[in-house]
Amino acid sequence: MLIGQASINLTANILSALLGLLSVFIFTRLFSPHDYGVYLLGIGFASVISVFLVGWFRNLILSGHARNDGTDVRSLVISGYLICCLTAPIAYVLGRLVGLDTTAALAAVVLSVAIGLFELTQDLVRSRLMALSVMKATLVRAVAVLVYLANEPWIPGDGGETGLYRSALDPVDQPITAIAPINNRVFAFECSPLSFHAFISNRRTTRNSIVMWVHRTAEDLAEQWRPLLPELHGAR
Question: Is residue 58 part of a domain?
Answer without folding.
Answer: yes
